[in-house]
Design brief:
It is built from no helices and 17 strands. It is mostly beta strands. It has one domain. The termini are far apart.
């Protein structure tokens, strides 16, 4: 059996480093945050979406998207309807809901982890450590 990864939506929007945005942010397809957002970051429902919160980024509010990759800081609940990737420098302060979770060593969560499908065993993907 051959496993293939679905093509990611293109990142069409960038919140650059040094940028501070206040208010709710809604997006389609791909969004990368390198700056700071004070407000909810919500993907429009019904389409495949990708949200990247980079190492230097901070989000103070709710996060909701299909595929979420965090390597910065999120202070608020996170929902990933497809996959949540927590990179080594990720910090999440809030409850986390996910379909599939990939968590690297060094990532931290201060909140409750819950799979979106409550009655089933959660799908966890273990990230291999690069430490030799």
């Amino acid at each position: 059996m051959i496993f293939t990864r679905k093509a990611q939506p293109p990142i069409r929007t960038l919140i650059g480093e040094g940028t501070v945005l206040r208010g709710e942010l809604k997006f389609d397809e791909g969004l990368r945050i390198d700056g700071e957002v004070f407000g909810d970051v919500i993907a429009n429902p019904g389409s495949r979406t990708l949200l990247v919160v980079s190492e230097k980024a901070r989000v103070h509010g709710k996060v909701n998207a299909g595929h979420v990759i965090i390597n910065g800081e999120v202070r608020g609940p996170v929902t990933a309807s497809e996959m949540l990737e927590l990179q080594p420098r990720a910090t999440v302060v809030g409850d986390v809901r996910y379909e599939v979770l990939e968590m690297h060593p060094g990532a931290t969560i201060d909140g409750e982890l819950k799979p979106l499908k409550g009655g089933e065993k959660p799908a966890l993907k273990l990230a291999a450590s690069n430490d030799a």
